[in-house]
Amino acid sequence: MHNPALLDLLHTFKMAAQFMSFTKAGEALHMTQAAVSHRIKRLEEELGFKLFIRLTRKLKLTKEGEQLLVTLTDSLLRIEEEIEDIRRNDLRGLLYIGISPTFAQLWVMPKLARFQQAYPALSLRLRIKASALDFRYEPVDLGIYYGRSDYRGVVVDTLLSEQLVPVCTPEYAERHQLYDNPERLSQCLLLHCSECLDHADPRAEWQQWQQGVGILSSKSCTEYFFNHYHMTLQATLQHMGIAMGRLHLVADYLASGALVTPIQQHVPAGLDYTLIYPREHGARPRYQAFIRWLHDEIMHHTFPSDVVSPL
């Protein structure tokens, strides 16, 4: 469809749909009611379907008209955003980031000051949510989530692949004689976390690690279950038990010595920290600034030196 007048006709339709009145649309467009009606008729002929149901003294959108209005409104909003981005070189304004809870708290927040220093004119809004957001219904620009990288209809950029290894405090490891002694796990309080695991068994990470290192599943006397990973870490730091560590989240605790890996073999979690975003966002400078910052931080992110036995 290459009708040069189509944009004018679509603009007239949007105004008529906004006011639900040809008369009021005409006043806003500085034309007569008859001219608006004529334009709508031309647009309907061009498109091949009706846009309005003409009732007594009022208008109603057809199903096709409602669908076109949603698409047109979204398209015009994006055009306005692009124009504003070009005007401002896109390195100011607001970025809305959806992000999984503990990755935000333990990985992003300690590094976020460097982003602010690099891009002082950009504002950020972080929304914490364990499950992935739906870009069709929620006003989020980019998402960072922990899970399987099988999102559809969006760009998927795998940032980090997680590894699993048991962690506890040095005191707990000594008290329970855990160093290189996995059979002692049956005497420990196992700490479980279901954050970002959707509907998986909350014991899934422990079971996966035990299977990966070839240890028979040992039933401990007691178990604690949490749905937030930071709660699991707090229980671990209070010498309550031994947790399944997600290496990228516990790296700083291991580096400081607050936590140790008494049984050092680690196994792939099979889950990733993934950046997802609509394809149309990828080329815009302010989105690229955040993506570039993430990858720069990852380049300087290292595993703790005391984890030496990957499987």
Automatic annotation (TrEMBL):
SUPFAM superfamilies for the chain: Periplasmic binding protein-like II, Winged helix' DNA-binding domain
GO molecular function: DNA-binding transcription factor activity; sequence-specific DNA binding
Alphabetized UniProt keyword annotations: DNA-binding, Transcription, Transcription regulation
GO biological process per UniProt: DNA-templated transcription
Pfam family, one: HTH_1
Similarity-based family: Belongs to the LysR transcriptional regulatory family.
Ranges for domain HTH lysR-type: 7-62
Transcription regulation in keyword set: yes
Protein name: LysR family transcriptional regulator
